[in-house]
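User: Show me an example of a complex going from sequences to structure tokens.

Assistant: Sure. Here are the input components:
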Amino acid sequence: MGGRSLRRLPLNLGMAVVGVLWLVPTVGLLVTSLRPRALFATSGWWQAITRPSQLTIENFRRIVEDDSFVTSLWNTVLITVPASVGVVLLSALAAYAFAWIEFKGRDSLFLLVVGLLVVPLQMALVPVARLYGDLRIFGSILGVVLFHIAFGLPFAIFLLRNVFASIPKDLPEAARLDGASELRIFARIMLPLGLPAIASLTIFQFLWVWNDLLVALVFAETSTAPITVAIQQQLRLFGGNIDIISAASFLSMLVPLTVFFAFQRYFTAGLLAGSVK
Amino acid sequence: MATGTTVGRRRGRRFGARPGVAALFLAPAVVILGALVVYPIFATVLASFQGPTGGRWVGLDNYQELITNPRTRRAIRNSVIWVAVVPATVTALGLVFAVLSERLSFSRAFRTAIFMPMAISLLAGGVIWRVVYEQSPDRGVLNAGIAAVRGVTHPPGPYAGSTPSQGMRPAGEGMSLEEPVVAGHAYQLGLVGLAPEQVPKDARAAAPGEPKADEVVGVVFRDFRPGGGGQRGQIDQDELGLPGMKVELRNPDGQVVKAVTTTDDGSFRIERVGDGTFTLVLGGASFRPPFEGVQWLGPTLITPAILVAYIWIWAGFAMMVLAAGLAALPREVLEAARVDGAGEWQTFRRVTVPLLAPEMGVVFITLVIYVLKVFDIVLVVAPETVQDDANVIALEMWQTAFGARNQGLGSAVAVLLFLLVLPVMVFNLRRFQGERS
């Protein structure tokens, strides 16, 4: 046993170094966000390791007292929650129809959904911006949410249809024989049985929308912009605003990181399923 | 498509819902997809043949602009670099991490560390790397690391920044005396422009030695008197010798004949010098400036710098997919290879890699699609002054359509992007139809 672990020592050591190196950039941002701005200009964040007295939560305090940042963080929530719930709900309904209801043109329609899987959203920005202008929802949270739902749907439908279709057919057929409505079968059989996949999908869509910059950059305006846009607009003065940028970036990372560590299993599963997107 | 009827018969219309119900289930998704994805695809194609704000038809003008404009050409060229480098690198790195981490005692912790960047936004990832890439070694951790290594291999010279007071010219990093050097003479090499703290504590008053017939002697000194006075080019009272300076005697071919180091009073003595004329050169290492930091975010290195940040984010994805594939491999096959005497490398090369080929293909294709659409991280990591040097197709689309407000050209860029992912779409459709039949 000793010989075996000794033989693996170089590998263990080398990989430990790689793992630590992988974390260094993120730790660097965290420590930067905990140091006063003046220190950023003159010394590296790693000096705080030997001088922990440099650390302060002042930057974070200023951010949470800054109304515009609080608003943008709130906007992120207002965009992310409906966009995630919306995608999951609408895709589950559609996936049920694709998997269990017979109708004309079903396969062609599903093939269309498969085709839409890889359409780059750049392909829709200009026409949707014009459409939103006509509908007077350009710059609104609703517009941002709808766009996220639209581009989340193809993959969500694809995934859930495959999940629902793999459910043994005796279950819905027995329910139908008992006179259960389609909506009841959907809610009582499909949703519970598809729950692990739905959880993965929700987490994935949540992170996708939470982390989005491009869609919000195009369709939101100052009062509806999420935190990613707020941070992006500070970048022009990178060194001068590093206290705000680093603290806000870290705040924006908190929720995804929490989700990641709390639901890592589902996150991984979603990622594996999502490899076709 | 033909399968619809068979599926219908098997599943049985008897228990089935009315088609109207299907419409109710599908309607919300279909309306949104139709209005915000399908219709825009056609509208964008049309807009790409129109002027900046739509309406006026311009034929192929936008596409001509696309392939002739230096801006868009650079964006396309950079995107080609991205596609050529990132998917292959990420797949290879993920494979190595997946295989090696399997044997670690802290496998879970390692994978979590590598995978973690996937959870954060490309914006935050970009900010993270901008801090890493700060140019000053006092601020950017990457340059600080390089500075630490260079401090050992190429330590900064003690006399960096000084200039000759007279009669010398630059020679590489060092400087050479213009006056030809022959044995039996003494030479004075004065330097100015030294900060007070650059003169070593143990430096003593400059004192040239007396040469023997076959010797070259001299003194390197600070040609400056604190408090003023003194004459340039000669050693005045209180002027200090500069110890520790490398002095080389070179022959007319430029080869180093002898090399010595100055003593505390700045003097040096080169013995047994032959006939002929030579050159005296003050060695470059003594003048080597301190490391200023690599300009990672400058115009030349910006794209590689962003590539590294992106690979850092995505390596975890590749590792996780390939680790899942690895875990699903039949153990007997790997064991059998080992029993047959195959080494680690052979097993990896001949068994593991071929068996994982499908997963590697998935990772590669996924990365190609994402890399073509890469946007945020370029916008964030590249400072405004070099953003054009780092430009990529997806960023150019946004810049053109919404920054420069040329929606026609922007649409053409979007169509180009669409055409590039089209093979993957066809592949998906084929594979899906293949599964059905």
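The lines above are the inputs; the final block is the predicted structure for all two components together. The first strand of chain B starts at residue 163 and ends at 164.
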